[in-house]
Amino acid sequence: MSNTALDPRLEAMLDKQAITDLVYAYCNAADRHDNEKMRSLYHEDAIDEHGQFFEGSAMAFIDTLPSIQENMRILHHSVSTINITLDGDRAEGEIYIIAFHQVATDEGLIDVLIGGRYFDKYEKRNGIWKYSHRAVVADWVKVDNPSTVNLEHPMIEGSRIGKPGQEDPSYSFFELFKWGQGLHPKS
User: Fold this and answer.
1) CA distances from 17 to 11, 12, 20, 168, 183 (A)
2) DSSP letter assigned to residue 105
3) Which residue in 73, 69, 92, 74 sits closest to 16, CA to CA?
4) Nearest Cα to Cα of residue 33 among 126, 185, 170
5) How many degrees, rounded to 5, is the angle at CA 23 between CA 18 and CA 28?
6) Choice between 56 and 6, residue whose per-residue pLDDT is larger
7) CB under 8 Å to 141, separation ≥6 — which residues?
8) Is 51 helix (H, G, I), strand (E, B) or coil?
9) What is the pLDDT of residue 174?
10) Could you tell me which CATH number the domain at 8-151+160-173 has?
11) Which of 60, 98, 173, 183 is the least buried, fewest Cβ under 10 Å from its Cβ?
């Protein structure tokens, strides 16, 4: 095996892809309420700023997720524009996001669609990129009260229906994706 260093351009591409995979893993962990996986995506000393829900230690934020998520019947994060800049083992990202939430309230179900961005700081420690700081930025929000979601529409009859938690059909369909695993599951 050679000790030759990689071309810096190739190393930058690999680092950016690893960070992009981290962003996607975050969306999956949030949507499936997979808080074990979520925990594996942050460094132990990371910070999370999540609007009214939380500001402080990311690990403490993840500890509060079950109570935050208990009324959320649907979570669906979709990433569009990803801007990442690298500086050695540090990086920053501005990640555009559209996040759909169906929330159970005392008055019934409501839909909340948020367009925003994540302001992220990442660090590569022991060869692995993780979040060191994440801040949520809301650019716009659309609320439908009552909810307009119809999971019984004939167009989706017979389809698998996504659910939070391990009851999501992905966990019985896939063999390689496992509950609670971060980006680098142990073999």
Assistant:
1) 10, 9, 5, 26, 12
2) E
3) 92
4) 170
5) 120
6) 56
7) 112, 113, 114, 115
8) helix
9) 84
10) 3.10.450.50
11) 173
Number of residues that this document lists for the chain: 187
Say yes or no to pLDDT of 185 above 70. no
Distances (CA, A) of 125 to 4, 20, 180: 21, 16, 21
- Distance from C-alpha of 171 to C-alpha of 20, rounded to nearest angstrom: 22
| Cβ partners under 8 Å of residue 35, min gap 6 | 29, 62, 65, 66
pLDDT one-digit tens code per residue, 25-49? 999 999 999 999 999 999 999 999 9
Which is more confidently placed, 90 or 53?
A: 90
Chain centre to alpha carbon of residue 56: 18
Assigned token pair, 169 = 């059909």
Task: Name the 3-class secondary structure at 41.
Answer: coil
Structure token digits, residue 129: 């990129």
Single out the residue of 38, 44, 69, 66 nearest to residue 57, CA to CA. 44
State phi, psi for 54 to the nearest 5 degrees: -170, 150
CA distance 42 to 61: 11
Spatial CA neighbour of 118 closest among 86, 85, 94: 94
Domain assignments of the chain as residue spans, ordered by start: 8-151+160-173
Backbone angles phi, psi at 148, to 5 degrees: -105, 5
